[in-house]
């Protein structure tokens, strides 16, 4: 059940602190299941955070990031009530998204 | 004094160097995880499992096409809040002492008309899984029981019998390593590698253990239940595999739960 991102965003002075928790298996492609079969790679390749049309953070990820990744970052130029929207794309082309209003 | 000091200077130097290296290591375990938890703040990936569990709880399933919402977890049909703090307990309808996993399976069979084997064939996640139905349901019930005070009942003779049985299993040495649960869990302030081992014979130790499961295991990226913890302990003892909801697992939880009386539920938490 991939696809969900929980987002929290709060103002700390003039910076906005964002915390995001994503539901994703982040399989490296190197692991085997108990029967010995290779588990296919399945991981997030790109994460984008936007406020309106403005991209405030963009990240390229790989297999080294943990399951259910937790992402934290700060950016400037935000005000309370703005909506931070975070989305990802993984190596299978599946997407996930979540958003929150800045408190 | 100074002579002694000079003579022993190098030795002392090495010793204190070792101490300096070892001391932070021993503490590091707690610090690193305290730091990790602080960084995560209120976020715990268990939240996803809890939400999935709530969906599963409310979704009609099985031949009878009903949800589990009318399942009696001991506090009346449909009452989830605080239920985990009072399990295992004796159920009149099942004529048995059941823990949360056994009770859920009982409800799936009786309410939903499902075959328990579908769940029992794989109660817990394996490598590459994202969680099972049972794990999700337990997570939801645990979350609803957060902050409840542990009060595992001992009023019924069957419950008292179960406690006695649990105590017996706890001290029973078996397997190729002649291990019992008590080997690891009957002394205070011991650890295995860097993990602190709770003393399950004391109120404090049993409380810490009982209230902290189910938990999200960072090292596995999965939510694990108390039943899994028991199975895993059994595996480490090289015992035959404990089955989810079996009497042995229920008895051990009864022993731990009664010893933990008065502790406050804090699951699902974050663990190593």
Low-confidence stretches of chain A: none
Work out the helix count of chain B: 10
CATH class call of chain A: Mainly Beta
Gyration radius from CA atoms of chain B, angstroms: 22 Å
The neighbouring-strand order within the major sheet of chain B is 6-5-7
**Major pleated sheet of chain B:** 3 strands, mixed
What do we call the CATH topology of chain A?
Immunoglobulin-like
In total, how many domains does the architecture of chain A comprise?
1
CATH homologous superfamily annotation of the largest domain in chain B: Cytochrome c-like domain
The whole-number mean of residue pLDDT values of chain A reads 92
What descriptors fit this protein?
heterodimer; A: 103 residues; mainly beta; Immunoglobulin-like; four-stranded antiparallel β-sheet; three-stranded antiparallel β-sheet; 0% helix; B: 272 residues; mainly alpha; Cytochrome Bc1 Complex, Chain D, domain 2; two-stranded antiparallel ribbon; 10 helices; globular
Walk me through this protein's architecture.
The complex is a heterodimer of chains A (103) and B (272). Chain A is mostly beta strands and 103 residues long. Helix content of chain A is 0%, strand content 51%. In chain A, strand 3 (44-51) and strand 4 (54-60) form a beta hairpin. The radius of gyration of chain A is 15 Å and the shape is elongated. The mean pLDDT of chain A is 92. In chain B, 38% of the residues are buried. Chain B folds into 2 domains: 1-43, no CATH class; 44-271, Cytochrome c-like domain (Cytochrome Bc1 Complex, Chain D, domain 2), CATH 1.10.760. A 3-stranded mixed sheet of chain B has the order 6-5-7. Chain B is 49% helix and 8% strand. Mean pLDDT of chain B is 87; it is low at 1-28. Chain B has 272 residues and is mostly helical. Chain B is globular and about 50 Å long. The A-B interface holds A 1, 4, 6, 8, 19, 21, 23, 25-27, 31-34, 39, 66-68, 70, 72 and B 39-41, 43, 45, 47-48, 52, 126-128, 130, 218, 221-222.
């Amino acid at each position: 059940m991939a696809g969900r991102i929980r987002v929290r965003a709060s103002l700390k002075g003039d910076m906005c602190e964002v915390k995001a928790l994503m539901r994703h298996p982040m399989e490296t492609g190197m692991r085997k299941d108990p029967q010995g079969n290779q588990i296919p790679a399945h991981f997030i390749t790109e994460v984008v955070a936007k406020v309106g049309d403005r991209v405030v953070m963009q990240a390229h990820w790989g297999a080294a990031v943990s399951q259910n990744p937790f992402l934290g970052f700060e950016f400037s130029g935000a005000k309370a009530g703005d909506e931070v929207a975070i989305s990802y794309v993984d190596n299978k082309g599946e997407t996930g998204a979540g958003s929150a209003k800045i408190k | 004094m100074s002579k002694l000091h000079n003579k022993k200077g190098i030795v002392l130097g090495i010793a204190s160097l070792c101490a300096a290296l070892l001391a932070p290591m021993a503490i590091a375990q707690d610090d690193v995880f305290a730091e990790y938890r602080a960084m995560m703040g209120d976020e715990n990936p268990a939240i996803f499992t809890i939400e999935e569990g709530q969906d599963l709880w409310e979704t009609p399933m099985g031949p009878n096409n009903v949800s589990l919402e009318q399942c009696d977890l001991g506090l009346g049909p449909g009452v989830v809040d605080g239920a985990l703090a009072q399990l295992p307990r004796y159920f009149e309808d099942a004529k048995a002492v059941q823990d949360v996993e056994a009770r859920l399976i009982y409800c799936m069979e009786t309410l939903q008309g499902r075959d328990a084997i579908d769940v029992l064939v794989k109660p817990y996640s394996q490598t590459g899984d994202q969680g099972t139905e049972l794990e999700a349901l337990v997570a939801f019930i645990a979350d609803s029981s957060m902050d409840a005070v542990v009060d595992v009942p001992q009023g019924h003779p069957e419950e008292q019998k179960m406690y006695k049985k649990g105590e017996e299993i706890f001290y029973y040495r078996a397997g190729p390593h002649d291990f019992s649960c008590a080997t690891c869990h009957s002394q205070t302030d011991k650890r295995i590698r860097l993990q602190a081992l709770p003393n399950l014979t004391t109120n404090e130790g049993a409380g810490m253990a009982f209230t902290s499961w189910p938990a999200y295991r960072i090292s596995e990226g999965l939510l694990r239940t108390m039943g899994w913890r028991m199975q895993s302990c059994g595996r480490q003892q090289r015992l035959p595999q404990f089955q989810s909801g079996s009497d042995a697992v229920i008895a051990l939880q009864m022993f731990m739960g009664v010893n933990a009386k008065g502790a406050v539920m804090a699951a699902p938490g974050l663990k190593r």
